């Protein structure tokens, strides 16, 4: 693998070698979904119908929005959020992703929490939109939203494949839905025979195979403004990447940045010094969820957890001397692989 000069470079350490791409051209497809853009680059196999492929991608994304959007009132998740108290049977794909989110909540002691929608809305990051300028939630409002939040309070009836709405609880799967969608599109393309491709939704990416010239899909990592690290490129050869950062979506008030990631323990946006976390993993949903979880864990617990789980992660942390970077051993190994 050859990367452009004068860049920091990450090379996968999984040791898998790609097969030869099926042709000498690349087809680019794109569109809009989940309030952001999507893009796909594929090395089309012989006979691939590009128009039909675009339609299949758009159909799959529409299906996912119809399941997991809390912005579309017709979506299954939004309907649950607005339902009165009771148990509600849910579809199999909804059940599967919700259980995956709850497993991650258990694994991370709540750093991933799919039940924080009421808090997300309270802070102005949900469907009701931004709060008035300078208007922060009161302690009583935060306490009320916390009372209907928390993954440990979500009850499931596994025999009926049903989820309990306690009244006012709002699910929010946006911490892993984009990553899940990237994985679904990657699997869809592979099923269509386009096994060499790059998929991106809102800055979260997954690459499989290589380009026609044998080069991997080189992608530049997102970094917080002012981050001390140099421009960093990663070879997405059977690899996914996601970044969680408070500069991506948030607002400033009285000299403080309020990012969109909510700490379920406090009911408030993160205030632990973490400006961003980038995670590389085999699956985009894992990278997506873990980038959020590690940011919530903070600059001490986060790197320790990532190290214990052998996650390739890079943290940018604010301190008295400015921004510093912390990388895990698995991340450093990818740098060493390129040296």
From TrEMBL:
Cofactor(s) needed: Mg(2+); Mn(2+)
Pfam family, one: ApbE
Region (Disordered): 1-24
Sequence positions that bind Mg(2+): 175, 288, 292
First-tier enzyme category under EC: transferase
Catalysis performed (reactions): L-threonyl-[protein] + FAD = FMN-L-threonyl-[protein] + AMP + H(+)
GO terms for MF: metal ion binding; transferase activity
Comment on bound cofactor: Magnesium. Can also use manganese.
EC numbers on record: 2.7.1.180
Assigned keywords, A-Z: FAD, Flavoprotein, Lipoprotein, Magnesium, Metal-binding, Transferase
PANTHER family: FAD:PROTEIN FMN TRANSFERASE (PTHR30040:SF2), THIAMINE BIOSYNTHESIS LIPOPROTEIN APBE (PTHR30040)
Family recorded in the similarity comment: Belongs to the ApbE family.
Protein name (Swiss-Prot/TrEMBL): FAD:protein FMN transferase
Organism: Brevundimonas viscosa
